[in-house]
Amino acid sequence: MTREHIIINEVGPRDGLQNQAQALSVEQRLQLINALITSGIRHMEVGSFVSPRAVPQMAETDELLARLQPPPDMCLSVLVPNQKGYELARAAGARTVAVVVSATETMNQKNINMSLDQVMGVAKEIIQQGAAEDITVQAYLSVAFECPFEGLVAHSTVMGLAHELIAAGAREIVVADTIGAANPATVRVLLDPLTAEHGGETFACHFHDTRAMALANIFAAIESGVRKFDSSIGGLGGCPFAPGAAGNAATEDVVMMCEDMGYDTGISMPELLQAVSLAAELTGACQGGRAHYWLSKNTG
């Protein structure tokens, strides 16, 4: 019997590394990405085209893309904050880009110094340009549950933004719990109507583990029909512009849960744990997921 597949989108090389005090070299970033590819990961966010002054950890992502030799079934994505970022990503050969729309006015201003309307306008332009140039555009809806500056976000606000982005042609909407404020009940309340209307394949989720509920929230999203999730090796990550945000759901924890529940991820746990060890060696900050100790003692 064929097991249902869940896609793990590894975001450690971007969302994880951009929050580390020490910027890794392109060679070190390549080493980590290749270790993750060896584990079986086939969806990965490998960098971003942002100002190297603002986020020096993501400098030279163009060189990184040029040197990567991924397998043919690999989907590599990069984050782009604006039109200039999109153009740089396209010139570097990126075939999948991610745009980020925060669900509140203040978060957009704090993050990229633009209003919500302005960010939506830029996102729609990039989505339409990507469609014309055969570049897949993913649209992230950040602070989809709670904003560190404005508090709880109305579900109707997020649903309205998702509808607009889908109408504009976004291939995928990533619902992001940027500061880790969601719980399984709120996840179901938001995602059930969205997946019912647009299908679970239209959505992915990005959960942070600030309140130790990332895995529970992923389970709730699975129940809502979502089958694609961001996670970060060893739980690396956060958000430099979101006070209080902790790391992402650890990839090894998500893989363990999904596989134990009978889903297929295509990821080899022994090789993944080797990649976790490498991340710890390179960053000095990777502690491993909640199940890391058990996994390290019980994975052959």
What does this structure look like?
This protein is α/β, with parallel strands linked by helices. The chain has a single domain (7-298), classed as Aldolase class I (TIM Barrel). It has 12 helices and 10 strands. It has helices at 12-16, 26-38, 61-67, 83-91, 105-112, 116-132, 155-168, 184-198, 214-223, 251-260, 269-283, 292-298, and strands spanning 7-10, 43-48, 75-79, 96-102, 136-142, 146-147, 151-152, 172-177, 203-207, 228-231. An 8-stranded parallel beta barrel has the order 1-2-3-4-5-8-9-10, surrounded by 7 helices. A two-stranded antiparallel ribbon has the order 6-7. Strand 9, helix 9 and strand 10 form a beta-alpha-beta unit. Helix 2 (26-38) runs antiparallel to helix 11, helix 8 runs parallel beside helix 9 (214-223) and helix 10 (251-260) packs antiparallel against helix 11 (269-283). The protein is globular.
What is the secondary structure topology, with strand pairs?
Layout: E1 7-10, H1 12-16, H2 26-38, E2 43-48, H3 61-67, E3 75-79, H4 83-91, E4 96-102, H5 105-112, H6 116-132, E5 136-142, E6 146-147, E7 151-152, H7 155-168, E8 172-177, H8 184-198, E9 203-207, H9 214-223, E10 228-231, H10 251-260, H11 269-283, H12 292-298
Parallel strand pairs: 1-2, 1-10, 2-3, 3-4, 4-5, 5-8, 8-9, 9-10
Antiparallel strand pairs: 6-7
In short:
By secondary structure, the protein is α/β, with parallel strands linked by helices. The chain contains 12 helices and 10 strands. The longest helix is centred in the middle third of the chain and has 17 residues, at 116-132.
